[in-house]
Amino acid sequence: MGAEGPRLPTTAERRRPPVIGPGHTFATVTDKISTIVLTRPTTPGWLAGFLLSFSLMMLLFYAIGYLLLEGVGVWGINIPVGWGFAIVNFVWWIGIGHAGTLISAILLLLNQQWRTSINRFAEAMTLFAVASAGLFPLLHLGRPGLFYWLVPYPSTMGVWPQFRSPLVWDVFAVSTYFTVSLLFWFVGLIPDLATLRDRAETRAARILYGILAMGWRGSAMHWHRYQTAYLLLAGLAAPLVVSVHTVVSLDFAVGIIPGWHSTIFPPYFVAGAIYSGFAMVLTLAIPLRAAYGLEDFITMRHLENMAKVMLATGLIVAYGYAMELFMAWYSGNTYEGFTAWNRIVGPYWPAYWALILCNVVLPQLLWFKRVRTKVPVLFVLSLTVNLGMWLERFVIVITSLHRDFLPSSWGMYTATRWDWAVYIGSMGLFLTLLFLFIRFLPMISIFEMRELVSETDAGSND
Amino acid sequence: MLMGRTKPPIYGLLAEFDTPAGLVAAAERARKEGYRCMDAYAPFPVEGLAEALKFHHTRVPLLTLIGGIVGGLGGYFMQYWIAAINYPLNIGGRPLHSWPAFIPVTFELTILGAAVSAVLGMLGLNGLPMPYHPVFHVPRFALASRDRFFLCVEATDPKFDRQTTQRFLESLDSRGVFEVPH
Asked: pTM of the full predicted structure?
């Protein structure tokens, strides 16, 4: 510590838990985060988790292989329900991704210091969630080998995509989202890769991190341009993240199916996306901070703030549910009214009521500070929100399609074991990528933690 | 320097500092002393450092703007050309140039163009990737990505003199001064 000795916390600081534990310097944050990657041996816990995830990923590949051989008939989809689990899972995964961008971009622009220790792995979560999401529409195409028809290219057939269709907008929205998230994540990693290069103990690691760091040396002019570019990226990612789930919601809202054709869809989808995304960040952050002893960096303040964001967005989602029901009644439209009623008491009533329980009732516990600061309870609540948001998409997709205008064309949808295999397998893909990420890359942004140390005035050498 | 345009024998002199404030103060002093060919190295963006070294202008925002405009206009006209000129579909007499339907893709491509140019522009202007740089010869420089702050006065500076500059850098309350070979 410096010559002045430890600084006494002010009253405001004592009331709120800090964003970083006391006593940290530039050197300690660097060492603590980089040793997780560089010197800490592979733990049995990591290995067990990785093996489980990897097995699930193999299940995904197996299920995809079977699907490609046999066609989409192996899934439960048929007329009238042509959009089964594939679209439910697509929307669910894309939504989960949104919290990463929100934390890294919007909270950066709002100058929220507490974002620093969670933004890196939240961004990684975004990338892996979007990667998992992107699989589903492609597999759902029926002819996945012809996926490139979605892209406008001058083909010998002389045909082009239909740009008036939200499904084509979706291709552009999701691929832009993935590209920009990847750029944002990689740009954030460059200085940390340089740190790993300089601290690597083996030649192979030095070369590998060195190539990825591209010769970063922390020059003042470089930092100047870097910060400008980083802020611009944040400014670009903020409207982008709102647009992505808006476009996803338009896939539904532009259709005339009762229960979909509604103007509330875009804002309600965006709120739902942030809601499920923060739930997923909590689901990942709580075990990670325990396993790697990162309680100094991901403090109670972070968990509590995320719980508050969940509560706020959960209330917006609840308002969306209420408005859907209100409009079904107030519009006087027979079909809208029937769809709402069919959701509540129809054959899929357990899904509807479970969703209300998970997304509306249980999260109200977050009003209490005692609940927000109790880590195991928070963990369980984050899981129930994840489940609730999946059920929400299930209810939207399945119940609207299975009974629309003509009773003679009604039908039921049941997921097959291949539907489940792809869904559970996609979690394997997500978790495998995540396990590899926490093993080989710094899961907390080191240079931003140093900046935080310097801002909180704790950083002096020796 | 008498040597004129020939390459100086060393790259420059590197001074090490303990704190960001020490580095900013040193950069300001060196600037006042008349040194111009300098660069500072820090493990995180230090506030006031670029100003101390008189680095003000960056063309990253301009490149981002151009990328965004190119992406947006390109996206819009691609859709217009495809939907109204190259492959017109008459569906119930609806207008071929249905511009509201073209907005989402135009928006996405604007963001894409701007983001890609921001990143490539930043890397390009910074001269990255750059696998080799003389400062890496100094073993202590590995700490520039951990907790130390460095100021490098380059030998190309007209005022640079091996002895005087070394004495000047030592007088700046630095932790050490190192020679940077080529």
From this structure: 0.90
